[in-house]
Design brief:
By secondary structure, this protein is α/β, with parallel strands linked by helices. About 40% of the residues lie in helices and about 15% in strands. The longest helix has 20 residues, at about 90-110. It starts with a strand and ends with a helix.
């Protein structure tokens, strides 16, 4: 199973390094692709609507803009894990990734409403801070807007792989939560 793991932290190492090492040592037939947004610039959307016709962003992939490369990895993966710290809201590079995704999926969807290649993709979104596991609902709500045809502003309606109601009470740390969700893919 191809699993894309997007670490949204602005920093390398730390908790992400620990989670990545634990995932690599997990049992299962996984082909991991780890993307650290700290290593990847993503420019904000220009709202040019050029993606409406092609379903691809018209901004070229460059060493200074890795959006299309990361989005293509999302399309090719069997499942997506997004692991994000909570510094203040949502990290800026994750926001830029989501912003570009909505343009592609929304504008191309206006032409062909069934043209959403992420619809139904297995996904898990995790959020943490120095205090431990955080409520991932805010990021899930934003992700819902990019993969769902119908979404709500107050509750997530997507069937995520991780859906513990109070994960902080169930798991000792974010790594355990990620690994338990990974086991569900077997």
């Amino acid at each position: 199973m191809k699993l894309l793991v997007i670490f949204a932290s602005q920093r390398l190492g730390g908790e992400n390094k620990k989670i990545e090492a634990a995932m690599k040592s997990a049992e299962g037939n996984f082909e991991f692709d780890f993307v650290h947004l700290a290593d990847n610039n993503i420019h904000s959307c220009m709202a040019c609507m050029g993606c409406a016709e092609t379903g691809r962003c018209v901004l070229p992939s460059t060493p200074d803009d890795k959006f299309q490369e990361i989005f293509d990895k999302m399309l090719l993966s069997d499942a997506i894990f997004i692991i994000s710290p909570v510094y203040a809201g949502i990290p800026s590079r994750l926001t830029a990734l989501f912003e570009r995704m909505i343009s592609i999926l929304f504008f191309s969807g206006r032409i062909n409403t069934d043209n959403n290649p992420l619809l139904g993709k297995k996904a898990a979104i995790f959020s943490y801070a120095s205090c431990g596991i955080c409520d991932e609902t805010p990021i899930k709500l934003i992700f819902d807007k990019f993969v769902m045809k119908n979404y709500q502003f107050d509750c997530s309606t997507y069937e995520y792989l991780n859906n513990a109601e109070n994960p902080k009470a169930v798991y000792k740390d974010i790594t355990e939560y990620v690994l338990d969700t990974l086991k569900s893919l077997k």
